[in-house]
Amino acid sequence: MSEKREEMQNPVVEINGVNKSYGHHQVLYDIDLTVDRGETVCVIGPSGSGKSTLLRCINFLEEIDAGQIWVNDTLIGYRVANGRLHEMREREACKQRVDIGMVFQHFNLFPHMTALQNITLSPVLNKGVPKAEARAHGLELLERVGLKGRENHYPSQLSGGQQQRVAIARALAMKPFLMLFDEPTSALDPELVGEVLSVMRDLAKSGSMTLIVVTHEIGFAREVGDRVVFMDEGRVVEIGPPEKLLDSPKEERTKAFLSAVL
Amino acid sequence: MTNVSITDAKDVREQIDPDAAVVPVRHWGRLLLSVVVALLVLQVFWSFATNPFIHWEVVASFLLAPTILKGLLATLEISVIAVVLSTVIAVVVAVMRMSKSVVLSTVAFGYVFVFRGIPLIVLLILVGNIGLFMKQVSLGIPFTDITFFSAPTNRIFTPFVASIIGLSLCASAYMSEIVRGGLLSIGRGQYQAAMALGMDGRQTLRYILLPQAMRVIVPPMGNEFITTIKMSALVAVIAGGDLLTVAQSISGVNYRTIEMLFVATFWYLAVVAASSIIQHFVERFTAEK
Ligand SMILES: Nc1ncnc2c1ncn2[C@@H]1O[C@H](COP(=O)(O)OP(=O)(O)OP(=O)(O)O)[C@@H](O)[C@H]1O
Ligand SMILES: [Mg+2]
Asked: Where would I find the ABC transporter domain in this sequence (chain A) (predicted)?
């Protein structure tokens, strides 16, 4: 009972004072953000504001220069021993990423593998799932994203929207507790955006998954987001519930951005 | 001319016989050139066939001679082993070259620079005569007395082994650049997707990068294989026991130098033709999807 309460109180993602530079070019300044279990947080902001970089830091695709990122109460990218931080070995970092799903703007499916092979590769390699089981789960996931019967198609034989749904299924196959989406619909033709958003909507509504979604779809953020984060020039400018942040933003920069995109 | 009236155009349309075949354009110049070229080629063949200094019956009698076939087998062995060995080395050197460790990438750079820079014939002579300046080959921990294995150089570096090593050093340097190009042709997104799925560097290389790089790598690699087969003739300078070596040693006895060269030529062309056919099918296989 008490353990459960504790779990409820502890956020899934806790970002404290994160700074990040590429060479001399600082892209993230003192980022603070917490995301609770089952929550869907949408991140909006102009191009180059550091949204993708922030997502990549959360699963340690990028190293950070200062600050800490905690996911499920474990520090990302570092081990704590004797009160000191130790850089992680590659194998340990890989273990952490196994439980965090990521979906990219350009899908990044493996073009030499079928849809099903894309989905089953990592569960078999890195979670020790038996091949037959991975296959069955893969087919289930394909059905869930509306792609029943497409398991033997190669990415080049699928439309953009279908590819992105395979990519979502691929991430889900690892049974992550956290999913990161980096502008999953902005490379899609307008008529294909809906099918991908609807898969994501189902995921968010299922309640068991925590989602961080970088998006330009203000409508999606309004409908599905529990909270919306506005970033600009490497800083979190404003955080709030969608209706508040989108309809009556406090900050001037948020207002300016919203009036430009809406 | 430019002012065709409507009635004229109508006349022309009605004149067209829909059943008549289209009259093709005659390329008279092309035809003439073809005849000239064909005549020239015939002339070349004819002069070879009737040349009183070439005894074709000698060529024919040696084509399937056991010594020649043994040399052919040696050429095939040297080429195949060298090609396999250099492919493995090429992948290792290419991955080292892309390593974050400055030492590893510099060593890989140096390897490519040195072995691409030395003319193959010089390299072969050097490796073939390695016994002149290295009496013992030993494997151990550097700067200590610990050795796991040691043997006289001449016992290990037979001409056959030296040929394979010389060819491999040269071919792997070229091939590693091909492999590196193939690996570089794969976008950052693929690395990121693999990493995000919890795959480590080794898994990413094996399951994601190399299979995709294959498509870019295979065509130039096929050419590199064929080049290596032809280059293997150079091992004759260290008496590698290959086709050319035996052909030349036979002509040293029977003085049929030209005939023996034709015998070797025939087999080289046959091997290259066979390799080209294999290359064609491998390319078609990897180009699918
Ligand atoms: N690998 C990299 N090396 C150097 N600079 C980078 C790299 N990745 C991103 N940047 C820089 O970091 C800044 C933030 O980039 P980021 O991709 O995070 O922005 P973003 O908010 O996702 O923009 P967009 O909406 O265009 O995707 C940009 O100025 C970009 O040029
Ligand atoms: Mg981005």
From this structure: 13-258
